Amino acid sequence: MSEQELFGYASAVVVGLVIGLAGGGGSILTVPIFIYVFHIPTVLATTYSLFVVGSTSLVGSVNHIWRKRVNLRVTAVFALPSFISVYLSRRFLLPALPDPLFQFGQFVLPKSNAILYFFAIVMIIAARAMIRSDRPEQGEASDGHPRYGSLALDGLAVGMLTGTIGAGGGFLIVPMLVLLAGLPMYRAVATSVLIISVNSFVGFLGDINHTNLNWNFLLPFTGLSIIGICIGMYLAQFVAPDKLKKGFGWFVLAVAFYMISRELYTGIL
């Protein structure tokens, strides 16, 4: 095993650690790791990301449910539309996208590059949210009545995002659960982990029929990520997640600009 592969497997622990501490953000790391460290094709990397993040988040959600931190009613309202959206995106939309996605004269934009650019933009948005580190107030649900219609619509949008780029969307889900459902932050994070878990598995199921998976690689990577989330959930009792999220946000921002610059440089060559 090369040093690069060892670095990649070590990064799997960091993926789980981030999910355990922040309630999301793992998929922001998994896709670049699969593409740039293990040289896995883009679309397949998003499939692997869904399985890893789904499995890792499942372990975290079991712990949160046991501690009664998850709001199951809000989960159902947000998650059911999201499940439908993510499955349809992975099963039909993504395979139906033409390759190249866009062509004008000599300019050609392959589907894999378009997904990477979109993913990098999402990373920049997520990094900004982490760096600002603002805790949203109760917003529209300050009266104690969750806005179920708005939650369902947001679920559809997050499902589309998950299905397209293989990101769990935790950085979007947590603020929406606070603003539209009136959940306190710790319950929003716990509920987000459950939604991410099932969302990711639904998206992964949409890929099984047309994807060949390397389980000898995927299962060890997932196992290390699960070890990471166990460590993260333990550390969350002693560490203030806000400071860690801010540092992680700057790291994500750097990775996003690296992805964009690398793809642009490769495209020029």
TrEMBL record:
Topology of this chain in the membrane: Multi-pass membrane protein
Pfam families: TauE
Subcellular location: Cell membrane; Membrane
Ranges that cross the membrane: 12-37, 43-62, 74-94, 114-131, 151-179, 185-205, 217-236, 248-265
Keywords: Cell membrane, Membrane, Transmembrane, Transmembrane helix
InterPro entries: TM_pro_TauE-like, TSUP/Inactive_protease-like
Signal peptide: none
Major subcellular location class: membrane
Name of the protein in question: Probable membrane transporter protein
Source organism: Spirosoma flavum
